[in-house]
Amino acid sequence: MSIFHRFSLAGRVALVTGGGRGLGFEMARALVDAGAHVIINGRTVATLDAAVETIRASGGSAEAGAFNIADCDAQRAAMNDIEKNHGRLDILINNVGARDRRALADFDDEAILALLNTDLAASIMLSRDAARLMKRHNHGRLISVTSISGQVVMPGDCVYPAAKQGLTGLMRGMAVEFGPYGITSNAIAPGWFATETNAAMAANEDLMPFVRQRIPVQRWGRPDEIAGAALFLASDAGSFVNGHVLTVDGGMTVRM
Ligand SMILES: NC(=O)c1ccc[n+]([C@@H]2O[C@H](COP(=O)([O-])OP(=O)(O)OC[C@H]3O[C@@H](n4cnc5c(N)ncnc54)[C@H](OP(=O)(O)O)[C@@H]3O)[C@@H](O)[C@H]2O)c1
Q1: Measured on CA atoms in the order 83, 89, 95, 97, is the torsion positive or negative?
Q2: Catalytic residue among 160, 178, 192, 193
Q3: Which residue's alpha carbon is nearest to atom 30 within ligand 1?
Q4: Ligand 1 nearest atom to the CA of residue 196, by list position
Q5: Which band of pLDDT confidence, cut at 50, 70 and 90, is reported for residue 89?
Q6: CA 45 to CA 38: how far, in whole Å?
Q7: Which of 13, 86, 105, 149 is the 20 to 30 A CA-CA neighbour of 252?
């Protein structure tokens, strides 16, 4: 088998949370390009419909899966639908990551729990239920989108890095627990990407000296530059990679 065939996802079914735009959309598109059917999750139906339409227009196979991942009942219903409609789930990309950057002293209990729920607990529950489906076929790929936040931290940012590092712990635990069932678990840690969410920062010329000094490639990442990492970890090309954090940051975290 050629190495290119090992990147094929023909016959695979994937769920990408928060896949309607940004990095999630680019990863979903990469899986579709490799032959997978992708369920694109998010809360806003119009965004999901537009994403699905874009993918179908280029000949790919996708459907919208509208639910709030932080809502346990909605999450369970969505997983039941996937089981009923497809009978399998091969790839889960836990991509949703809400951002709430402020000093810890300014967080009340409710805001801490809400962020931990969306950015960590929801992915733990989804992964548990996805692994149950994956075990049936003795094959699966669990991919957690973490962040370089946690390895390096901006002042006034505690809860989000805590959740992302928690996700890294989850990823490692699942690599060990599910490896015997043919299921790998890995993380992608993005650096600074010029997604919609970061549009104002990415357009801020005053930030560019910092970007040039701190990011060795001297620029923001383009959202589509996350796609290769996702495809590698989702496919057989990455079949012996398990428990790894693939940092995609233009070298930001290794610069002294
Ligand atoms: N962009 C970066 O530079 C960067 C850097 C480091 C790490 N990351 C991580 O990479 C991931 C993607 O980042 P991004 O900037 O591409 O994301 P984003 O644009 O902020 O959000 C992606 C999608 O998530 C959906 N979403 C948010 N909350 C949700 C929920 N509770 N349930 C279901 N869907 C939800 C949103 O759609 P709806 O609002 O319609 O639900 C949105 O389409 C995140 O985990 C982020 O922490 C990004």
Answers
A1: positive
A2: 160
A3: 68
A4: 19
A5: very high
A6: 16
A7: 105
Q: Which of 15, 16, 17, 23 most suits a substitution to test ligand 1, by most atoms within 8 Å of the C-beta?
A: 23
**Residues 192 and 222: beta-carbon distance below 8 Å:** no
Residue 150 pLDDT > 90, yes or no? no
What is the chain's length? Answer: 256
Question: Could you give the C-alpha distances from 219 to 27, 99, 206, 215, 245, in angstroms and in order?
Answer: 21, 22, 13, 7, 22
Q: Is the pLDDT of residue 1 over 90?
A: no
State both tokens at 48.
């999901």
Query: What domains appear along the chain, each with residue ranges and CATH number?
Result: 5-248 (3.40.50.720)
- For residue 69 and ligand 1, the question of a CB distance below 6 A is answered with yes
Question: Token match 């950015």: residue?
Answer: 119
Q: Active site includes 160?
A: yes
Q: Is 41 near ligand 1, meaning CB less than 6 Å away?
A: yes
